Amino acid sequence: MLTTNPHGDKAATSKRDRRGAVKSLRLAIVLGSVILTGCGGDPDHPDPAAFNRQAQTVEKPYALALSRLVTCMTTLQGFTEKEATKRVFGNADKPSDMEYLSAYIAGQSRGVRMQVSTKDAKEKASYEMGKALFHYRAGSWDFSCASCHGTPNKRIRMQELPVLSSKQGARGTYTTWPGYRVSVSQLKTMEWRINDCFRQQRFPEPTYGSDAVIALTMYMAVNANGAVYRGPGTKR
Ligand code: HEC
User: Fold this and answer.
1) Which of 161, 195, 216 to mutate to test the pocket of ligand 1 (most atoms within 8 A of CB)?
2) Among candidate residues 105, 64, 100, 106, the one with its CA nearest the CA of residue 221
3) What is this structure's pTM?
4) Mean pLDDT of all residues belonging to the chain
5) Has residue 190 got a pLDDT over 60?
6) Within 13 Å and on the Cβ side, how many CA atoms surround 221?
7) Measured distance CA(174)–CA(230) in Å, rounded
8) Phi/psi at 218 (nearest 5 deg)?
């Protein structure tokens, strides 16, 4: 069932907060399925033709689910890309349908072992690009992702920073996103997490669904291969 992630979130939140988070998370998943129904999908029987072939989220847990969601909406449902990505991140006053949808779709992969392939040349290229980006230092602080997530035992305030280039760090992290963030009472997606880390890195915000974000996601997903997907999770 729903789990907390292993990076100290348990210690950082009270029992009451966690109970509230689990309830809100369930609600987010239910709302995602309702929205999906509104889009013409049957949440109890996710249509393999419509979702698995296009989104592949059941076999490839959460891998790239968000950009695939946009692909489905534009190629199958007739939305323009602008419409599909109009409101991808919510706030405390108004959550985003895309976040709920991603929680629902990711939830379909719960219990499935991560096996994101790099056999295809394009998959391999995306992984390699993600790896390069992860280690690419630039910006006013000359930071890369690896500056904060590349070596063990690093912390910022109370937050332990997982080593996302390692199997262990990537597995614990990747398999618990998207997550309900107790600190802001909102469900957040991996894409939001990456965007916020780009901000912490003093880099410009990447475009939603851009090659760079997909490549970074791919890199972390492949590093997490072999682990069982346990999300959506709860986060600090
Ligand atoms: C300046 C330090 C810093 C940099 C650089 C940084 N991060 Fe982070 N990252 C953090 C912090 C702090 C957290 C925990 C935030 C929280 O829980 O509030 C975090 C959390 C994460 C998480 C979620 C971890 C979990 O346990 O669920 C992921 C995934 C992540 N970062 C990816 C990245 C990627 C990809 C990059 C490069 C684009 C990056 N980060 C760059 C500081 C950084």
Assistant:
1) 161
2) 64
3) 0.81
4) 80
5) yes
6) 31
7) 9
8) -60, -45
With contact defined as beta carbons under 8 Å apart, do 114 and 226 qualify?
yes
Query: Could you give the CA distance from residue 113 to residue 111 in angstroms, rounded to a whole number?
Result: 7
Residue 80, pLDDT > 60, answer yes
Measured in angstroms, how far is the CA atom of residue 162 from the centroid of ligand 1? 8
Give residue 30's pLDDT: 65
**Which atom number of ligand 1 is nearest to the Cα of residue 183?**
18
Q: How confident is the model at residue 76 (pLDDT cuts 50, 70, 90)?
A: confident
Six token digits for residue 21: 């988070």
Catalytic residues: 197
53 Cα: distance to centroid of ligand 1 (angstroms): 31
From 62, 87, 67, select the one nearest 228 (Cα to Cα): 62
Ligand 1 binding pocket, CB closer than 6 Å: 5, 7, 143, 145, 147-149, 156, 159, 161-162, 164, 173, 193-194, 197-198, 200-201, 216, 235-236
- What are phi and psi for residue 87, nearest 5 degrees? -140, 85
Higher pLDDT, 166 or 157: 166
pLDDT at residue 201 greater than cutoff 90: yes
Q: How many residues does the chain have?
A: 236
Listed by start position, the domains of the chain span 14-235
What CATH class has 14-235? Answer: mainly alpha
- Coil, strand, or helix at residue 206? coil
Q: What burial class does residue 145 get, using C-beta atoms within 10 Å of its C-beta: 0-12 exposed, 13-18 middle, 19+ buried?
A: buried
